[in-house]
Amino acid sequence: MSEKAIESALPVGPSSVAGVPVVTIPLAEYEELIRLRKLYGNAARQVLLPPPTRSRIDRDREVADFLNEHLGRMLLKEIHAACVQKFGVARTPSKSAINRYHVKHMAARRK
User: Fold this and answer.
1) Burial environment of residue 70 by CB neighbours within 10 A (0 to 12, 13 to 18, 19 or more)
2) What whole-number distance in Å separates Cα of residue 83 and Cα of residue 74?
3) Which residues contact 64 (CB under 8 A, 6 or more apart)?
4) 3-state DSSP call for residue 20?
5) Each residue of 2-24: pLDDT tens digit?
6) 83-109: pLDDT as tens digits
7) φ/ψ of residue 74, rounded to 5
8) Relative to the CA of 103, which of 7, 55, 75, 86 has its CA 20 to 30 Å away?
9) pLDDT tens digits for 68-82?
10) How far is CA 82 from CA 5, 12, 27, 77, 86, in A?
11) Residue from 54, 53, 52, 62 nearest 91 by CA
């Protein structure tokens, strides 16, 4: 049976068997999925999907804690200057990054 004939015999879209949703894929593709699952286990999903991104501030817990302590109590330029003094230029986020962090976390607190 040719590949084209096989494709035309397959149902289009998902269907169900005994109420369980199923899809039909070629055997070679199924075997590849099984091989990847054996090779990577649950990590296969991590390989296929990019990890959610976090801001540089979210990845630096010490800087984030410092900002959380001072945001709303000091002016943005004062917070930035204090952050440079405490952590140095390399670890200090820009004023606009600090503002984005503040807006994001204020929105999260309201939810």
Assistant:
1) middle
2) 12
3) 57, 58, 101
4) strand
5) 666 555 565 566 678 888 888 88
6) 999 999 999 999 999 999 999 887 777
7) -135, 160
8) 86
9) 999 989 999 999 999
10) 70, 61, 61, 9, 6
11) 62
Token digits for 97?
């990054």
Question: Phi and psi (nearest 5°) for 59?
Answer: -80, -20
Angstrom distance (rounded) from CA 55 to CA 5: 50
Amino acid identity at 9: A
Partnered with residue 22 across adjacent β-strands are 15
Q: How many CB atoms are located within 10 Å of the residue 79 CB?
A: 22
Tokens of 109: 């607190």
**Nearest-10 Cα torsion for 95, 97, 102, 107:** 150
Q: In the Cβ-directed half-sphere of 62, how many Cα atoms lie within 13 Å?
A: 6
Q: Give me the phi and psi of 20, to 5 degrees please.
A: -100, 125
